[in-house]
Amino acid sequence: MSIDIETARKVAHLARIKVEDDRLPELAENFNAILGFIEQLNEVDVEGVEPMTSVTPMRLKRREDVVTDGNMPEKVLSNAPDAREGFFAVPKVVE
Amino acid sequence: MAELNKLTIAEARDAMRKGDLTSAELTEACLTEIEGAGALGAFVHNTPDLAREQAKAADARIKAGDAPDMCGIPLGIKDLFCTKGVASQAGSRILEGFVPEYESTVSQNLLDNGAVMLGKLNMDEFAMGSSNETSVYGNAVNPWKVDDRKLTPGGSSGGSASAVAADLCLAATGTDTGGSIRQPAAFTGITGIKPTYGRCSRWGVVAFASSLDQAGPMTKSVRDAAIMLEAMCGHDMKDSTSADLPVPNFEAMLTGDIKGKKIGIPKEYRMDGMPDEIEALWAKGADMLRDAGAEMVDISLPHTKYALPAYYVIAPAEASSNLARYDGVRYGHRAKLGQGDGINEMYEKTRAEGFGDEVQRRVMVGTYVLSAGFYDAYYNRARKVRALIKKDFDDVFAQGIDAILTPATPSAAFGLGEMENADPVKMYLNDVFTVTVNLAGLPGISVPAGLDAQGLPLGLQLIGRPWEEGDLLNIAHEVEARAGFVAKPQKWW
């Protein structure tokens, strides 16, 4: 599998990272080096093997489905680049 | 008592309990060292006022009696840990200005034990790197030096390693996703342990790859690692993968008796082109354990070769998902927007400006392997290979192996900038001996065991059974005692 410049552009967009056109060839080359390395996995016989979901065989803990914290909008918003009237502010999303 | 900053945790604890030393004195000595060590780039956010306040409280607590072991011990905290009211950036521009409203569970546990925080430590951006060269703060530098070159302290916990090796603090926290505690520990001649996955809560630690990330201590001795690890771990309801198991007194388990322990030597770790020095060190480690009464057993971990490629699917996949939260809305950097820019431009520009090259690369690789059409071929296949890698370990432990001995790294520390033009995969090979341990969720420790021909430290790695950090530390303690590693870097900074 070889990544071309168009695929690199598409992946950058999916990852929501702006990559200038002149940087795309280098990015595609990096991807190809990394994916070439990953290709080795195809040598392994994985027939009948379950993909690992949890490295330590443990049941996830359960608790009552109740509110355990909250009522701290100032703290939640304290690091926001733009917060107004108790909300996070972003550029207009809907016309 | 001369040069207080050079004390180990155990020495300082005992001296403070006897009343020969106060935490205030010890903390002041460290703060002075830190001030003179700017050239190491280890500390990136200093908290001297907070440290003095905590030291004072610790002294009162010690005086009142019954203080925990870590009480009054001055530490450095890796920038990956969120610390309340203190900048926590994960070495990234995208978290510039971020000041958490909360404290990570691990650092809170240390504070509850009376530990003193001297400041935050340099690291590779989002813990992605093996040389601390991807940090927004600039490089951390290894205090070890053999010629004009500045050497890497390793990564990602490079600032932690540099600070401990240079005696700027008594110990530091690190985190390890593929070797980020053990490789820098080996490069700087200190001890570092990554506990079993689930021992330390991940809550409040900036996430890289959640199924692999674990915090652990980086210290000047195995005994210190035992003391500090005990204070760091414990069950936490805020991390669903945190283990609800009792935490033993690890220090009490350093009995010095490892007679009859079965130590595995995995043949797959004998890599092509492995330097003779690494090979010789490994053999020396086996001799030391044999002398201590342990039995060496040749073992096979057949899927070792596939650990790095599996890691470079799983870790970027998890990272791409975890790092999706950096969108310029809730915290950190937001790009300046142009006329007519909408929310997509905001995301794309913010992330392009905020993430460095290596982080961008890994997020995009992760995005690719999780994308429609490739999920099965890459991500699911890697998770299956991961299951096989874990089974390799399960099988040897079922045969009665107590621990596994390997080199910690394929070489000693290299020069900063030397890998700049190499393809990214070259850098990834640094983790060849450590990454299997993360994939299998096992505890692993790096212990300094010798110097190479140039005079740079080399480490040995021991891998333990799940949840048996105590036994692992006891075996590592024997290696430490027999290796007699006492070399220190000459001060040039």
Compile the SSE list and pairings.
The complex is a heterodimer of chains A (95) and B (493).
Chain A: H1 5-14, H2 24-38, H3 73-77, E1 83-84, E2 87-88
Antiparallel strand pairs in A: 1-2
Chain B: H1 9-18, H2 23-35, E1 43-46, H3 48-64, E2 74-78, H4 105-112, E3 116-121, H5 158-165, E4 171-176, H6 182-188, E5 191-194, E6 214-219, H7 222-232, E7 262-266, H8 276-291, E8 295-299, H9 307-322, H10 343-354, H11 357-370, H12 375-398, E9 403-407, H13 424-428, H14 435-439, E10 444-451, E11 457-464, H15 469-483
Parallel strand pairs in B: 2-3, 2-4, 7-8, 7-9
Antiparallel strand pairs in B: 1-3, 4-6, 5-6, 5-10, 9-11, 10-11
Helix pairs in contact in B: 2-3, 5-6, 7-15, 9-11, 9-12
Q: The CATH topology of the domain at 4-258 and 466-483 in chain B is what?
A: Amidase signature (AS) enzymes
Number of distinct helices of chain B = 15
Determine and state the CATH class of the domain at 4-258 and 466-483 in chain B.
Alpha Beta
Fraction in beta strands of chain B:
5-15%
**Spatial order of strands in the largest sheet of chain A:** 1-2
Q: What low-confidence regions of chain A span 5 or more consecutive residues with pLDDT below 50?
A: none
Can you count the beta strands of chain A? Answer: 2
Termini of chain B, distance in Å?
23 Å
Helicity level of chain A, as a percent range? 25-40%
Span between termini of chain A: 41 Å
Q: Kindly state the mean pLDDT of chain B as a whole number?
A: 97
For this structure, the quaternary state is heterodimer
What CATH architecture of the domain at 4-258 and 466-483 in chain B do you see? Alpha-Beta Complex
Secondary-structure element pattern of chain A, one letter each: HHHEE
> What low-confidence regions of chain B span 5 or more consecutive residues with pLDDT below 50?
none
Morphology call of chain B = globular
What would you give as the CATH superfamily of the domain at 4-258 and 466-483 in chain B?
A: Amidase signature (AS) domain
InterPro entries (chain A): Asp/Glu-ADT_sf_sub_c, GatC
Subunit structure (chain A): Heterotrimer of A, B and C subunits.
Keywords (chain A): ATP-binding, Ligase, Nucleotide-binding, Protein biosynthesis
Pfam family, one (chain A): GatC
